[in-house]
């Protein structure tokens, strides 16, 4: 497999975590978003959105969109550690947490949105930063509230407290949360008052899979 990735891309980071958790070998192909390499024909012709990540499967198919890629990995490699738990309700809980990040927080704050705020809407750097902090902090507060609600639900059902977003093993939700927190830290968003969320992050970062997937471990991190 070949993963077309940019080290600071939250979406690509999610897929790197999933690949590492599942113990799957892949070739890392850097695509520098800031330099516009994703818009060059060699990359853009593979997927209509010309974004990262893109995953070229072992049989030559090219897949886009991080959530679809991770779901593909889950279905194609079911014998590896599962990223979705057993049970329809539990899977819905995990997907819901993942989508709180991937569909609610991240789209408002990815690189092309921030660039448009500055270059298209002529927002100042201060205004851009305020925008980022507002949406990321608010989204993480909602995530914290959801973790608290799920903790209460698990207690009511006699289940053990979760070490990760859901249960005692990392899931799709953790694959989404950790990259968002990496970017929040990079933009100096306040992360106080989020004990459950930050506790999950701490547990994840103790695992070799998350350490190997982080941006500083990517071959293009110094570019």
Q: Describe it for me?
A:
With 223 residues, this protein is α+β, with helices and mostly antiparallel strands. It folds into two domains: 2-81, Glutaredoxin (3-Layer(aba) Sandwich); 88-212, Glutathione S-transferase Yfyf (Class Pi), Chain A, domain 2 (Up-down Bundle). It is 52% helix and 6% strand. It contains nine helices and four strands. It has a four-stranded mixed beta sheet with strand order 2-1-3-4, covered by helices on one side. Helix 4 packs antiparallel against helix 6. The radius of gyration is 17 Å and the shape is globular. The chain starts with a strand and ends in a 10-residue tail after the last helix. The model has no long low-confidence stretch (mean pLDDT 96).
List keywords for this structure.
223 residues; alpha+beta; 4-stranded mixed sheet; Glutathione S-transferase Yfyf (Class Pi), Chain A, domain 2; 9 helices
